[in-house]
Amino acid sequence: MKPITGKDRLLQTLQHQDVDEVPWVPYAGVHAGKLTGFSAIEVLTDKDKLLQSLLRVNEVYHPDGQPVVFDLQLEAEIYGCKLLWATDSPPSVATHPLAETDQIPNWLPTPDSGRLPLVLDTMREMKARVGAHTALFGLVTGPLTLASHLRGMELFLDLVYNPDYVKRLIEQCRAVAEEIARFYLAAGMDVIALVDPLVSQVSPRNFTQYLTEPYTQLFSTIRAQNAYSALFVCGDATKSLEVMCKTSPDILAVDENIDMLQAKPITDRYNVVLAGNIPLTTRMLLGSQMDNMQFVVDFLEQLDHRNLILSPGCDMPYDTPIDNVIGCLQAVRNPHETRHLLASYQAEQPNLESVVLPDYKHLARPLVEVFTLDSAACPACGYMLAAAQDAVGSMSEAIDLVEYKFTRKENVARAMKMGIHNLPVIFINGEMKFSSLIPERELLVGEIRKAFREPSA
Asked: What pTM was computed for the model?
């Protein structure tokens, strides 16, 4: 009998069959460059370096499924957003061409637009080189995230005050996603993943109002082309799990903000495959190999393996230690042996005593603290930070603003001491005010104004 390949394993899972082991899909976007010594910029702008890096990922991490490019700014760049590039993370959007206009582009990209030729050529080459044994993912920026890239912070006001405009803009972004998906399917992709991290920052009501119809249409179109679909969200989207499932993606991929034990019964009810959610920073970036192995074996013991995929919570940070990813691979392939290996293992605990918090009751001026996974790499985090910067910048009073990224161990310990369980969040004078919900400017300004007080004697 022909041995099962990783691609077989993943596709059988998407067909809701029982498989020999849980499929493994490491999201190695710019992290692929870590394996070959290329920077994030090189990986995302040079086809040969991207291909070399992806092939190295395939060789070292033995994925059942593998994304080709993880860059949620690709479509935004095509539509005029200027990008801020970094050597160790995907680029971020620096300008928003629709920030001061209600005009909406009425044209669609072509295969020659922007960096699409690089992506499509790489997809075709990956299909020829590894497509027989690895399922390949084409990642498309979701309509809400693309709309936010084009419109900027104004989009979150539009959700309340200009709903007709939002619907028209999201419809155009849906059409863009459908066209990009068509290109990717023609290039041989097995799964089209709609990556929309901003979903966690809107309410289920807004999701139903603005996104249910576009998503349902996108997934239906992908299914009609004999391919599989995924909806990829970041942040605490727990409140929207059910409405997302109702749009009928084949996969719902989530990060560490989601409790998988709580999510799995919901996704199972709708026969949606749940994918996730190895913590990106506390385990993959900052933890040890044993920490990652421990997480995986616990994950596998707690969850029903049917309709389940193991993956990082999102695109792995560039500097994720290679040994940590290999540890996850070893654990998913050999969970029983790994459990035996971990029998006497004790994870290192953060030293909370070393964290000194401000004297919040006696601050000279308001202190706004934004806790993020990484605002440069996570769009939801980036827009939460931008909301805080926008509010503070609109005020004439002196206000302190600081970001704590989870890419640093001391910030993880600080968040633990403050009782933070989900990201991104905004604290004002030591009190959590907004969690996984980007606030309107007036609302955030109002909360900051409440914090003004005379310094204590």
From this structure: 0.89
